[in-house]
Amino acid sequence: MLVTSDEASSSVLDSGNEEFIAEGQTAVQLKFVDSEAEMKSAKGYHPEFVHQHFGDNETIFGYKNLEVTLYYTDASMYIYPQIKYDKEISSVSKELKADNIIELLKNQLPSAEMNTMVSSLDIFRKHLNQQRSFRPFGELIAKFDFDGREMQVWKISESSPQFDAYLARAQTLALWYIDAAQYTDNDDPRWQHYFVYVLCFLWKGVESDQI
Questions:
Q1: Which pairs with CB-CB distance under 8 Å and at least 24 residues apart come from 45-50?
Q2: pLDDT at 14 over 60
Q3: CA nearest 165: which of 119, 197, 127, 206?
Q4: Distance between CA atoms of 201 and 124, rounded to whole angstroms?
């Protein structure tokens, strides 16, 4: 089970290098997409908390004008990280080392689902294509209308390896928005999970339920 960690690295800078310190809540954004075409236009959401990934000071060291975009497949919840910056601290001082952002992100992934975050856009494309056949786990227990769209509530009472993997990927979001969040122990039979989905129509005209 993953617990809160403050192992993210930090560095002490002189007064001339503050531009290489990025506020984590500003630098990081999450986007949810169902196709590669949406990656540029999808709305970004900044996290509320980043201390579990980047330490108590909630900063990322070593990059000027840093942008960290975490793309999620909006149904199956796989992650593709994209990191952009203008300059790295090593170009200014060989004695200072930039934070390894990918490693810090990996440190907070569910231990049994390290493939949640993919290493290339090609792999992410495959997950985008595969999620076109996504169907919710559990049973449909309610429907309601919100802003002209049909919403569905699904209840999952029994665990399975497939659902446990899906839940772990979905719970990566909790670390960004719930202080001191941790992954749940699905071996406890008392857990019941509820997911709310919006009914969507895919490009092939096939009806599908997606987050």
A1: 47/176, 47/177, 48/176, 48/177, 48/179, 49/25, 49/175, 49/176, 49/177, 49/178, 49/179, 50/24, 50/25, 50/176
A2: no
A3: 127
A4: 21
Question: How far apart (Å, rounded) are the C-alpha atoms in residues 44 and 31?
Answer: 5
pLDDT over 50 at 117, yes or no: yes
Structure tokens at 65: 């004008």
Number of other residues whose CB lies within 10 A of the CB of residue 49? 19
At residue 2, does pLDDT exceed 50?
no
List pLDDT tens digits, range 135-154: 999 999 999 999 999 999 99
For residue 163, name the pLDDT band (cuts at 50, 70, 90).
very high
Closest by CA to 75, choosing from 138, 166, 161, is: 166
CB 171 within 8 A of CB 78: no
Question: What residue ranges define each of the domains in the chain, with the CATH number in brackets?
Answer: 18-130 (3.90.360.10), 135-203 (no CATH)
